[in-house]
Design a protein that fits this description.
heterodimer; A: alpha+beta; OB fold (Dihydrolipoamide Acetyltransferase, E2P); Chloramphenicol Acetyltransferase; eight-stranded mixed β-sheet; five-stranded antiparallel β-sheet; 11 helices; B: about 450 residues; alpha/beta; FAD/NAD(P)-binding domain; Enolase-like, domain 1; 3 domains; 13 helices
Chain lengths: ~425, ~450
């Protein structure tokens, strides 16, 4: 039986990707889980694994070509499944669910119900599904010409003609429904000199969607505090050059990460997620901390895993790796998934306090402001101090005020006395 | 409820709908006060086409037998037998009527003879019998309006009275602008009567593209039919006097006056107020009347006067009742005119395209040098294709050809799938056929663009 594997929705809300490299060729035997192709989206490079074992009978697209989500990538001949069994199997959606991938999201292998059984064309239900996901949707010549000219992805248009054929009216209707942006741009076109029009990048769309999702769902509450970090400055200065000898740059961030991970272990609500669908809380016993990274195209959040188990040096090393990958645009899905908490270090650019938006569905996000010299009172005397401003946003549905304050206190304790980071 | 669906009228709107409803397992009854098959089968499409076929056959033998190499025919001796023509026609009508009756039985449709009166939203009275139904479908058709000129009464024959054993006199006047009027005028002309066509309009065939109706007007005039345009709807200025219609200087010899005036809906008697407009029942895009349980399909809703469109409307209503949502575009259905040569048209006319502000092009290919047409001795006509400039979509097709009414099916298929001139040009047609001109018209459209 032939199985058509379509380019899955890899979570970012991105609807297309470019083929970077094929790992398989026609005729090749593959096992479920083997990497098929390396795809690059706006910001992510991801290996796409095969959901099935079998023989590759066709591959679609050359290196450099853009493939839309839902369009065919490969066809796999699966032995021993045919007819009605194939239809049955076709109905099973095998969703590889992984938590918190990317900016925010879920990795899901979609569209793998696009079986084309050798016999038994299948129930009408299955047929309809496969029509949607096979390479060519049913459409009239005029509808195709129209879609091409107007830049409509005909695969996304719901057909109302016989056998769900896409008619020209459907294209017009689709455009009407999706013209919020285009009608706006039309009205502004005459004003070309005053504004510049640029289509939304997929990453920007994703960020927009995730931010709104967060603001809609989480009850944001933010606490600000300042921690005196003279000791931390001293420690960092001391080890900076030593780390550099090993080609690793040491910033304050590894300390903050480590402090956070250790504090999370003590305040588990901050490392949790609310699962309303199942009426339960999910407390995570792993501490994967995402770092918001500013890029030209927009914000991405690579994740450093098991921070609690890493030394400051290892964390610094990971951070260096991430910035290198970001520079080379080599961040992969693997690098962005499974975060349980997020740190945004805006202070490296500027600003002391902020109200960070939670990386939903995580419970909290910690913002680090610019470290400044400020007068502090020590033993009743005003002395120069080094202050790190902290802004912690929590989802007040999950975390109460007291716990929030205690969590901040704990982090401050670690940061003001960095030796304590290795004492627990 | 006694019935899911009760249909009033068993013409092509009603019987197709009833059979479909029966097939879908709906408990269905159909009420008919006269003959099964309605106007189309008994007094319209079928008999008129049948007599035209006889007339064409007569002319073919008379004109072409010798040149085609058929010997033994004394062209002076051959004649046209109206009585036999009617006999053959009756046989055809009976056969088709029996077929409908068979399909009613096969699909569990109950036939109720009698005159229906709507008494409530779900109730109909047929000769004292109360019938209740979830849905009522009115498919009562239409008929010619009377010409209000009493001097004509004695010599007037309406279409439903025409197909009878009667004397066909020498001088015949046909009144009307519609296709039926043109078809009948031509029929009488083919059997060598002296024919005058009185047209209460400035052109014949009002729904046809002006290009087509002009072409046919010239053809009719050339064949000897006298056409007088812009007469008034009741011929007030004419008087019938001693074998002629007289109006001032004008004197039209007339022994028989055939009325094919514009038609009006036959609106069934009703105790509830059905909304009407210009003599037709008002319906929405799903042919629903002002009562949600009552529908009106076919001629009676005034949207179209074609049997196949009436049937399509009926099927749409059944789907609608069954909850299948779809749209119906009667412009995508062919309009056939059984003239000689035949005329068929689908889609938008040139005037409609202009009104819509669509940029278009016209490609036309004549039958004049088409091999098959020449072989058959019928090379009058053309295929004319109107397409939009932007995508090349085929917007309208008009055909004048001896078998245009069959050829239009190809255009209907093209339009059903929103084809472009490129598809038409790329569709290989067998040779020799008359349909080849289709591809030629397609190629011409494509070339025009290059």
């Amino acid at each position: 039986m032939r199985y058509i594997f379509n380019f899955p929705d890899i979570g970012e809300g991105l609807d297309e990707g470019t083929i970077v490299e094929w790992y398989v060729a026609k005729g090749q035997q593959i096992k479920s889980g083997d990497s098929l192709v390396k795809m690059e989206t706006d910001k992510v490079v991801a290996d796409i694994p095969s959901p099935k074992s079998g023989t590759i009978t066709a591959i679609y697209g050359k290196v450099g070509e853009t493939i839309h989500v839902g369009n065919a990538l490969v066809e796999i001949e699966i032995e021993g499944v045919s007819g009605a069994a194939a239809v049955e199997e076709a109905k099973v959606t095998e969703a590889v669910k992984e938590e918190g991938a990317g900016v925010v999201g879920t990795l899901e292998i979609a569209g793998n119900n696009a079986y084309m059984p050798a016999s038994d064309e299948g129930t009408s239900e299955t047929k309809e599904e496969s029509q949607k996901s096979t390479k060519k949707v049913l459409a009239t010549p005029v509808a195709r010409a129209m879609a091409k000219e107007l830049g409509v992805n005909i695969d996304l248009v719901k057909g109302t003609g016989p056998a769900a054929r896409v008619m020209k009216e459907d294209i017009l209707l689709y455009l009407q429904k999706n013209t919020v942006t285009s009608s706006k741009s039309n009205t502004v076109v005459s004003d070309e000199e005053r504004v510049e029009l640029k289509p939304l990048s997929q990453l920007r769309r994703t960020i927009a969607r995730n931010m709104i999702q967060s603001k809609h769902n989480a009850a944001h509450m933010t606490v600000f505090d300042e921690v005196e970090v003279s000791e931390l400055v001293r420690v960092r200065e001391k080890y900076k050059s030593k780390f550099l000898e090993k080609q690793v740059k040491l910033s304050y961030l590894p300390f903050v990460l480590k402090a956070t991970a250790l504090a999370l272990k003590k305040f588990k609500a901050l490392n949790a997620q609310m699962d309303l669908d199942n009426n339960q809380m999910i407390y995570k016993n792993y501490y994967n901390i995402g770092i918001a990274v500013d890029t030209e195209d927009g914000l991405i959040v690579p994740v450093i895993k098991d921070v609690d188990k890493l030394s400051i040096f290892q964390i610094a090393q990971k951070i260096n790796e991430i910035s290198e990958k970001t520079r080379k645009r080599e961040i992969t899905m693997e690098d962005m998934k499974d975060g349980t908490f997020t740190i945004t270090s805006f202070g490296s650019i500027g600003g002391q306090f902020a109200v960070p938006v939670i990386n939903y569905p995580q419970a909290a996000i910690l913002g680090i402001g610019r470290i400044l010299k400020k007068p502090v009172v020590k033993d009743d005397a005003v002395v120069p101090g080094t202050i790190m401003p902290l802004s912690l946003s929590v989802d007040h549905r999950i975390v109460d005020g007291g716990e929030t304050a205690r969590f901040v206190n704990q982090i401050m304790e670690y940061l003001s006395d960095p030796v304590s980071l290795i004492m627990d | 409820m006694q019935y899911d669906i009760v249909i009033i009228g068993s013409g092509p709107a009603g019987y197709v709908t009833a059979i479909r409803a029966g097939q879908l397992g709906l408990k269905t009854a159909i009420i008919e006060k006269d003959k099964i098959g309605g106007m189309c089968l008994n007094w319209g499409c079928i008999p008129s086409k049948s007599i035209i076929e006889s007339a064409k056959f007569y002319q073919k033998i008379k004109k072409d037998a010798n040149s085609f190499g058929v010997t033994g025919i004394d062209t002076k001796a051959i004649g046209f037998d109206w009585k036999q023509t009617i006999k053959r026609t009756d046989g055809i009508v009976r056969k088709l009527g029996a077929g409908i009756n068979f399909l009613f039985k096969k699909n569990g449709v109950e036939l109720i003879n009698g005159t229906a009166k709507i008494v409530a939203e779900h109730s109909i009275l047929v000769d004292n019998r109360l019938i209740e139904a979830k849905n009522i479908i009115i498919a009562t058709g239409s008929r010619q309006e009377k010409v209000n000129n009493s001097t004509l009464d004695d010599i007037t024959v309406n279409i439903w009275d025409l197909f009878k054993d009667r004397e066909l006199p020498e001088n015949i006047v046909v009144f009307g602008q519609n296709t039926v009027a043109v078809e009948l005028a031509q029929f009488f002309n083919l059997i060598e009567k002296k024919v005058t066509l009185l047209v209460p309009d400035s052109k014949i065939m009002p729904l046809a593209d002006v290009y087509v109706s002009d072409y046919m007007k010239n053809l009719l005039q050339k064949s000897g039919i006298k056409i007088i345009f812009d007469v008034d709807a009741d011929l007030a200025q004419y008087k019938y006097k001693e074998g002629a219609l007289v109006s001032g200087e004008i004197n039209i010899p007339c022994d028989l006056f055939v009325n094919s005036k514009m038609r009006k809906g036959i609106i069934p008697e009703s105790d509830i107020a059905l909304k009407t407009e210009n003599g037709f029942i008002t319906t929405d895009e799903h042919f629903t009347t002002n009562f949600p349980s009552i529908f009106a399909i076919g001629d009676v809703n005034g949207k179209s006067m074609y049997a196949h469109i009436a049937s399509a409307e009926g099927l749409h209503v059944i789907n609608h009742i069954k909850g299948v949502s779809e749209t119906i575009d009667i412009k995508k259905f062919p309009m056939n005119m059984y003239t000689v040569p035949e005329v068929a048209q689908i889609g938008l006319t040139e005037a409609e395209i202009k009104d819509n502000g669509i940029e278009y092009k016209v490609s036309e290919f004549s039958l004049f040098s088409n091999g098959k047409a020449i072989i058959e001795g019928e090379n009058l006509g053309f295929v004319r294709m109107l397409s939009d400039k932007k995508y090349g979509e085929v917007l309208g097709v008009q055909i004048v050809a001896s078998n245009a009414t069959d050829m239009i099916a190809e255009a209907a298929a093209f339009m059903q799938v929103e084809s472009t001139i490129y598809d038409v040009a790329k569709t290989v047609h067998a040779h020799p056929t008359i349909s080849e001109v289709f591809m030629e018209a397609g190629l011409e459209a494509v070339e025009k663009e290059l």
